[in-house]
Amino acid sequence: MTVRGCPATQALVAGVEPAAESDWDAEYLDLILAVRVVDGLDAALAHIARHGSQHTEVIATSDTARAQRFLREVDASAVMWNASSRFNDGGELGLGAELGISTTKLHAYGPMGLEALTTQKWVLRGQGQIRHPI
């Protein structure tokens, strides 16, 4: 496993390789982890907004207020608090076999099962009915 990090990460953990700016946007598909120490939750949220995948984001904290803010404000198909990002999976979420992953918001977002590959078309047949005010 390779760990790449910012100067603060390197100061905290021995053996961490220096991270390049491109590491913050990389999807490695390998045993590589990029770690950046930021100055507080606002900086973390800004980093995720700029470099996140909008797929899965995780916060590890015992601070409930910070975790709730993270869960509310992060734009991703799954946001997690003290849980593995590997839970964002069709089977784990009860969707059945995962047929694909969408990172757009139209119409499916995140892991997709068979139902997400279909769309709905509402067909109404009336005889002059109108909608009554509530």
Mean pLDDT: 85
Estimate the helix proportion, in percent. Answer: 10-25%
Largest sheet descriptor: 3 strands, parallel
Question: Unreliable segments (pLDDT under 50, ≥5 consecutive)?
Answer: none
What is the CATH architecture assignment of one domain? 3-Layer(aba) Sandwich
Overall strand count: 7
- What order do the helices and strands follow? EHEEHEHEEE
User: What is the number of helices?
Assistant: 3
Rg is: 20 Å
Q: Could you please say which CATH topology of one domain applies here?
A: Aldehyde Dehydrogenase, Chain A, domain 2
* Terminal residue distance: 61 Å
What's the level 1 CATH class of one domain?
Alpha Beta
Beta percentage is 15-25%
Tell me the overall shape: elongated
Largest sheet: spatial strand order: 2-1-3
Description:
The chain is α/β, with parallel strands linked by helices and 134 residues long. The model has no long low-confidence stretch (mean pLDDT 85). 20% of the residues lie in helices and 18% in strands. The protein has a 3-stranded parallel sheet with strand order 2-1-3. Strands 4-5 form a two-stranded parallel ribbon. It has a domain at 2-89: Aldehyde Dehydrogenase, Chain A, domain 2. The protein has helices spanning 7-12, 41-51, 64-73; strands spanning 2-5, 17-18, 32-35, 56-59, 78-81, 100-102, 110-112. The protein starts with a strand and ends in a 22-residue tail after the last strand.
Q: Which properties best describe this structure?
A:
134 residues, alpha/beta, Aldehyde Dehydrogenase, Chain A, domain 2, three-stranded parallel sheet, 3 helices, 18% strand
